[in-house]
Amino acid sequence: MNQEIKILLAEDDPSLGLLLVDLLNREGYTVNLCKDGEHALLEFEKQTFDFCLLDVMMPKKDGFEVAKLIRQSNALIPIIFITAKSLKEDRLKGYGLGADDYITKPFEEEELLYRIRA
Question: pLDDT tens for residues 47-68?
Answer without folding.
Answer: 999 999 999 999 999 999 999 9
